[in-house]
Amino acid sequence: MRLNRESSALILFAALVIIFYILPVSSERLKAGGNLRIFSREGILLRQFNSPSDGAYSIWLNVGEIPGHVKDAVLTAEDSRFYFHPGFDPLAMARAAWQNIAAMRVVSGGSTITQQTARIVYADVLPRNILLKKISEILLAIKLELHCSKDEILELYLNRVPMKFNQRGLPAASVRVFGRDIRFISREEAGALVVIIRQNYASRENFRLRYSSFMKRMWGMESADISVIESALFREGGYFYNDPESGTAHFEVFISAMAGDVCGDLRTPISANLNDAVAGIIRAELKFLSPHNVENSAVIVLKLPENDNGRVELAAMVGSADFTEESSGQVNGCLAVRSAGSTLKPLLYGMAMDTGEYAPWSVINDIPITVGLEDGTSYSPKNNDLKFWGPITIREALACSRNIPAVYMVNRLGVNNFYRFLIKSGFGHMDKPPDYYGPGLALGGGGASLLQLCRAYSAIAMRGRLLPIYMGSDMRGNDVYYGEGARLFTEKSAYRLTHILSDREARRRAFGSRNFLDFPYDVAVKTGTSKDFRDAWTIGYTDRYVVGVWVGNFSGKMMKGVSGGWGAGRIFHQVVRTLTGRERPVFRYPERYSLTRMCPVSGRPAGRYCRYTMELTDYADRLGRSCDLCTSGSGSSRLYSSGSDPEVISPVNGETYIIDPDLPARDQDIPLKVLPGRERTAAYTCRIDGKQSIPLDKPLERTIPAKRGEHSIEIYRDDELLRTIIFRVE
Question: How far is residue 706 from each of residues 166, 597, 725, measured CA to CA in Å?
Fold first, then answer.
C-alpha cells in the first residue's frame, strides 16, 4: 500500500513537471485551431472555412481592436481581479467552494480567465482526473502568466472562448448573432454576449434573469428592451461565411488546400472585381461557342512585377463557366492536366536558342520527316494545314506554329533533355519516362495545366526567370507560394521569344490578316489546339500581365473545329482588353540590342535584293557576310502581302480608338501599315479619307493624326476600288 502511494505521488509529480516545464507555449499552440479566412486584393472577405479540429468558426482580432465596454463586461463577469492575480485567484476559489458546499451542487467554478484560457489551449493534453486536471490548469495558468502579458492572455480568451452557434470567440459570435463586427455593437449587445459565455444553451427565462442581473450590476440599467437581442440569440437557421455565387469559388477551394496549416486571415492578391469581369466574359462567349460543342472555359491572370525585386501574383482564377453546375462545375479547369497542343513550342525554341546554335533567323526545314521510336515503330508528324512550307526561319516556324519543325527540333535537342527542361519548368505531373512521350512531347503530348503554362510563360516575360506565384500572406506574416524559382532561359533568348510572339506580321501566313491575336499594342501570344479539337488554348502576356485561356469540355468530348486562335483567342482578346483599358503597353528592349535586317532565305544579313525580317541582335551575334543568294525578284519577303493585292495591317476594319485627354496628342496618332501585293503589273494606291493618294510600290508605314469621327482607308488598283477599311476615333 505504501509503495502504491509513493508510486502515485511520483507519477503525479512527474506529470506536473511535464505540464509545467515541457509543454510548449508557442504562438502555433496559442493561436491554433483558428479559421482560415480568405480576403481578396480589395479587402473583401471571400470565404471563411470552419476549424478542422471541431468545425467551429472564429474571427481573430487583436485585443486593441476590441471595444473597451466589451472587455470591461468580460472582466466584470468572468475575472474582476484579472490584472492583479498570478494566474489563479485564491479568493475566487474559496468563494466558489463555499457556494458549492452551501448549495450542495456545483454553482460556481472560481476559474480565472487565465485558467479558462489554459483549459482551452491545452485541452488535448489535460488529464481526465478532476483533481489532477484542476491542479494542471493552475500550473498552466501560472506558466501562461510567465510567458505572456495580461493583454495577450485576454486576447487569447476573447478570441477562443466557446460561444453559442458553434462560434469560437466574441468577435465571431458578434457577427453570427448580430450580423456586424464586434467593434460596432452596443453595451446591451455586449452584455448579451458576455452572459451567454456561460449560458450557451440557456432557456429564454434563464437568459432574461441573468441578463437583467448583469446589466444592472455592470451599468446600473434597471430594465432594457431585450426583445431584439433575445430574438437574435434564439433564432433558428444557419449563417453562411461564403457566397455560393462567388466569382472566386475555384480559387477559394484551391488556396485552402494549398494553405495547409495556415490559419487566420489570409490576404491574397486575387481580385474579386477582375474575377467577376472574367467570369462575365466567359459566360458571354460560351453562348456564341456552344453551337460548336463547347461547354466550358477556364482563365488565369497573373500580375507581373514592376521590377526585378517584385513577385508574380495570381490576379484571377476562373476554373469553369459555373461553379454551381452539378455535373462538373466544381472541376477547376485551371488545374486540370490536358493535352497542351502547341503551347510548349516557345519553351522548345527558347531551349534551342540557349544552346547558341540557333537564332530566330536560323533556317530549318518544314518538309516531310519520319522519326524512329524506341519501340521500333515510326512517327510522321503533320502540320495543321497538311502542307509543307519548305525552308523557313525559326521566327516563322514558331509564330505560325508549324508542327514538323518542332518535331525536328526536339530530336536535335534530345527528347530526354526537353523532358528534363519541362520538369524544371514546373510540369511535374509527367510521371512516365521520356520514351513514353517521345517526340510528341514537342506537340504537347505530355499534357499541361493552365496554371503551369501561365507560370512558364511568365518566365519568358520575366527575362528567363521562373518565379514562384505569390498566393497570399497569413496573419503571422507567412507567405504562400505556388512553385519553385529557377532560371529557364538566358535573358537574350527570353527577349527574342517575346519579339517573335508579339510579331503580328510573322503569324499572318497561318492566322490570316484579321484574327483575335492582333492588338493595337504589344501583346506576345501563342495558341495551341489538341488532337481532334478536344482542347483549345491561348496563352500570352503584356508587360504587366500573363493571361491564359482554355476552352473545351471536361468530358473530353470533341469540339466542332474550335481552334486555340479562334475559340480561346476570342476570350483571350477580351480579357486582355479589360486588363489594359486605355493603356497601350509596349515591350522595351535593352539598348545593347539593335534591329537588324535578316534574310529569311539564307539566315544572313539582308542583301540588296533580299526581303527581310527585323531581328534583335547584339554584339555577341556572329551574323557573317550579307546574303548573296537573293537576286532581283527572288526571296521570300515577310514584308509583302500573302496575296497579289495589298493588305492593310493597321488599322483593323471596325476598330475604335479612344483619345486619352491625359496624354499628349502626338502620342496618340493612329498607326497605318499597308503591305504591298506581289502583283507588279498594276498600279496600287492608298487614300486616307479620300483626300490623299499614296503609291503602294513598297511597304507603307506612317501615322494618322487622331481626330474624332469616322475615317476610311481605301485601296485602289489603277482606278478600281478594291477595299475600304473603316475605323473610328472617339
Answer: 63, 31, 16
CA angle 581, 584, 585 (to 5 degrees): 110
Letter for the amino acid at 179? G
Amino acid at 167: Q
Note the pLDDT tens digit of each residue in 360-400: 999 888 888 877 777 777 788 999 888 888 889 999 999 99
Q: What superfamily would CATH give domain 640-730? A: Immunoglobulins (2.60.40.10)
- CB burial of 49-73 (b: ≥16 within 10 Å; e: otherwise) equals bebeeeebbbbbbebeebeebbbeb
Find residue 480's DSSP bridge partners: 472
Domain ranges of the chain: 2-233, 592-638, 640-730
Give first-to-last CA distance, the chain, whole Å.
100
- For residues 502 and 587, the answer to whether their CB atoms sit within 8 Å is yes
Closest to 539 (Cα-Cα) out of 572, 580, 579, 585: 572
Cα gap 621→356, rounded to integer Å: 9
CATH number of the domain at 2-233, please?
A: 1.10.3810.10
In whole angstroms, give the CA distance from residue 601 to residue 585.
32
Mean pLDDT of 426-430: 94
Q: Residue 101 has which C-alpha cell?
A: 458546499
Helices and strands, counts by H and E, the chain? 22, 29
Are residues 55 and 166 in contact, defined by beta-carbon separation less than 8 angstroms? yes
H runs (alpha helix) in 462-507: 491-501
Distances, alpha carbon 628 to alpha carbons 183, 494, 531, 634, in Å: 81, 30, 42, 11
Planar angle of CA 695, 700, 702, nearest 5 degrees: 120
In DSSP terms, 300 is beta-bridged to 317, 548
Distance of alpha carbon 100 from alpha carbon 505, whole angstroms = 90
CA–CA gap between residue 428 and residue 421 (Å, rounded): 11
Coil, strand or helix at 390: strand
- Could you report the per-residue pLDDT of 192-206, keeping only the tens digit for each? 898 888 776 667 888
Torsion angle, alpha carbons of 593, 599, 605, 608, to 10: -130
* Residue 101 confidence (pLDDT): 56
Contact at 8 Å (CB) between 329 and 323? Answer: yes
Distances (CA, A) of 6 to 11, 16, 18, 696, 709: 9, 15, 18, 109, 101
In this model, does residue 654 exceed pLDDT 70?
no
pTM: 0.71
Strands 167-168 and 162-163: antiparallel
Using CA atoms, how far apart are residues 398 and 346, in angstroms rounded to an integer?
A: 7
